[in-house]
Design brief:
alpha+beta, Endonuclease III, domain 1, 15% strand
């Protein structure tokens, strides 16, 4: 029986038209055409708009079989450094997840939990940014291909504990969890801070300043472009929906709802008392 395996074409087909890549980390990464990027030592398989690959950095001998030791699913590819045997382990997602700050938060949160859970199980480097990875198409790396079919969330979830907590400390957040945590923490701060600002420009500047400070607490900070996008999204929404008048309206509705609930409870109690007396 023939076993279908992943291959160069499958990996390359998922790459965007332009890909961030580099040959040397100290020179920084730059956006390159796909044709140029696949010739680079390192590249970011995911784009700024979507995540189709989960990659984990295993910095120890026999890293290429870390998934066996951890009883995790077979990777789609493993890219190994032939000099020290350290490796990057990659999984393709059947349904890519949008990174947009305006997209549904539930898939992003689940992706963050899966990524963190898998990284913990595999013993991956917690400081790895989950962006640049060893390019499996580059001749300097030793690449092994595994399962051809991509993974859906449900299958990956089956290899992890039932309770997958969402990391709440910035020092512990990795990969996509940084985006989720930054958005969550920034919006909670913004709800309280919104009324200290009288115009949108200073409010936007304040959100960006706060987001940048939060981002600095991650082991591997997010790119400034992603921090700016999150800050602008939070600033715009809270400015439009958290005006003093809107806040007063929300508080009035909550107060009326609470009053109605109290009246209902009191009437139920009175009924029970009168029923016993009569």
């Amino acid at each position: 029986m023939q076993y279908d395996v992943y291959d160069n074409k499958a990996f390359e087909a998922n790459l965007g038209s332009y890909v961030y890549a580099c040959d040397y980390f100290d020179l920084g990464m730059y956006k390159r055409s796909k044709a140029d990027a696949i010739e680079s030592r390192y590249l970011d398989p995911n784009s700024k708009n979507k995540v189709w690959a989960l990659v984990f950095d295993i910095d120890r001998p026999q890293a290429a079989v870390a998934w066996v030791d951890a009883q995790m699913p077979e990777p789609n590819w493993v890219c190994q450094n032939p000099k020290n045997s350290h490796a990057h382990i990659g999984y393709e997602l059947a349904s890519p997840v949008s990174r947009s700050v305006n997209s549904l938060r539930k898939p992003q949160a689940l992706l963050a939990r899966l990524e963190h859970g898998m990284n913990t199980a595999l013993g991956g480097d917690p400081a790895y940014s989950h962006r640049l990875t060893k390019n499996p198409l580059h001749f300097e790396h030793r690449t092994f291909y595994g399962r051809k079919a991509p993974y859906d969330f449900e299958e990956l979830r089956g290899y992890l504990p039932d309770n997958l907590p969402l990391i709440k400390r910035r020092e512990e957040a990795i990969g996509e969890g940084r985006n989720v945590l930054l958005f969550t923490d920034l919006r909670h701060w913004a709800y309280r801070a919104r009324f200290q600002y009288s115009n949108f420009e200073t409010w936007l500047s304040g959100c960006l300043e706060k987001a940048t400070a939060m981002n600095g607490q991650f082991q591997a900070p997010l790119p400034l472009s992603e921090v700016r996008a999150t800050a602008r999204s939070v600033a715009k929404w809270t400015w439009e929906h958290m005006s003093p008048a809107k806040f007063a309206e929300i508080q009035a509705r909550r107060s009326a709802k609470a009053s109605t609930l109290r009246q209902s409870v009191q009437m139920d109690l009175a009924y029970e008392i009168m029923k016993d007396i009569i």
